[in-house]
């Protein structure tokens, strides 16, 4: 009798609670060539199609239409076995939240609306050699704060006829000045049938620029970016379009950048061919532009495993730079690898 009662309780708990372990293991061979200096490099790198990760997500039905949820997602480098995202244990995502008819509220380290919008629009899905992160915002889309925000509370609306919206605030946590290092994020999307439209905004106050940031070098800056993009699926092929305006304010002045993407993806047998052209136009302090053309291919081997390859060509004007290529340099980047999802 007691055993039966315990079994019933366990069955009820399992019906209300869900826990999943998931991940991606991705590694590829990378070749890059600086056309200007003729330098070449071969290497093995993690996450050339999608960042390698191990994640835990769960939900609990609290009754009355209210659900608790969480995600803890670790990023790692499969080529060396080390942690990604600067050695954080859960550097990709770490948040807890509540969901209901009102929408959802999350607290913790989260992906930004800009990251999610670019991921939905870029035919190279952010990581392949032709990805838009390498040029958009002069390469600033390739790093925090535009990828993920710490100490963030966000609200997402429910899906209303294909429309969803997101608002978020990242606490700066600086004593004596609540505006220092604070972040404001917002996003909106419309997904219905063949149409996918993405709008995102990010304002990072007194952010620390990454070491690889172009133009003004490292240091502190106020960063603002607005992104608009979309795709249209014609069935046999999909069109990809995007535009972003990014401002970098430093003591040395303001750098204004406009970024464009025109791309396509199309079925080729059981695989998919990818192509794009991207331009980042730099204004004000260092006028000039960087262009990138890219071609790629993804071949599924099963529902969870695929192989991939991509090739990009980047051309920097003398006054500007993106990626690892310096001002005025031209370079090629190639990768080929395998990705497994579980």
From TrEMBL:
Keywords on record: Cell outer membrane, Ion transport, Membrane, Porin, Signal, Transmembrane, Transmembrane beta strand, Transport
Domain of life according to the entry: Bacteria
Membrane topology term: Multi-pass membrane protein
GO BP term, example: monoatomic ion transmembrane transport
Domain Porin: start-end pairs: 5-317
Localization per Swiss-Prot or TrEMBL: Cell outer membrane
Gene Ontology CC: cell outer membrane; pore complex
Keyword RNA-binding among record annotations: no
Cross-referenced CDD domains: gram_neg_porins
Molecular function as annotated in GO: porin activity
PANTHER family: MAJOR OUTER MEMBRANE PROTEIN P.IA (PTHR34501:SF9), PROTEIN YDDL-RELATED (PTHR34501)
Assembly mode: Homotrimer.
Protein name stated in the entry: Porin domain-containing protein
């Amino acid at each position: 009798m007691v055993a039966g009662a315990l079994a019933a309780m366990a069955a009820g708990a399992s019906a209300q609670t869900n826990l999943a372990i998931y991940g991606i293991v991705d590694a590829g061979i990378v070749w890059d060539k600086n056309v200007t200096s003729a330098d070449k490099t071969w290497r093995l790198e993690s996450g050339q199609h999608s960042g390698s990760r191990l994640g835990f997500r769960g939900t609990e039905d609290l009754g009355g239409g209210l659900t608790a949820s969480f995600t803890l997602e670790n990023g790692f480098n499969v080529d060396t076995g080390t942690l990604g995202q600067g050695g954080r244990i859960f550097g990709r995502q770490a948040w807890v939240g509540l969901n209901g008819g009102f929408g959802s509220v999350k607290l913790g380290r989260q992906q930004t609306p800009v990251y999610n919008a670019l991921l939905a629009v870029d035919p190279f899905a952010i990581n392949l050699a032709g990805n838009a992160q390498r040029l958009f915002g002069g390469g600033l889309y390739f790093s925090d704060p535009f990828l993920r925000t710490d100490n963030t509370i966000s609200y997402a609306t429910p899906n209303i006829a294909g429309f969803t919206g997101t608002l978020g605030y990242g606490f700066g946590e600086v004593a004596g000045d609540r505006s220092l290092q604070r972040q404001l994020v917002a996003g909106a999307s419309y997904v219905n049938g063949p149409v996918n439209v993405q709008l995102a905004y990010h304002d990072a106050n007194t952010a620390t620029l990454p070491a690889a940031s172009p133009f003004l070098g490292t240091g502190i800056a106020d960063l603002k970016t607005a992104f608009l993009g979309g795709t249209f699926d014609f069935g046999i092929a999909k069109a990809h379009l995007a535009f972003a305006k990014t401002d970098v304010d430093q003591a040395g002045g303001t750098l204004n950048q406009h970024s464009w993407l025109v791309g396509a993806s199309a079925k080729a047998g059981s695989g998919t061919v990818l192509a794009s052209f991207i331009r980042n136009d730099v204004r004000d302090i260092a006028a000039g532009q960087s262009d990138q053309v890219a071609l790629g291919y993804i071949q599924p081997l099963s529902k969870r495993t695929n192989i991939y390859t991509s090739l990009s060509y980047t051309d920097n004007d003398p006054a500007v730079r993106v990626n690892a290529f310096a001002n005025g340099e031209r370079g090629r980047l190639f990768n080929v690898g395998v990705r497994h999802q579980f």
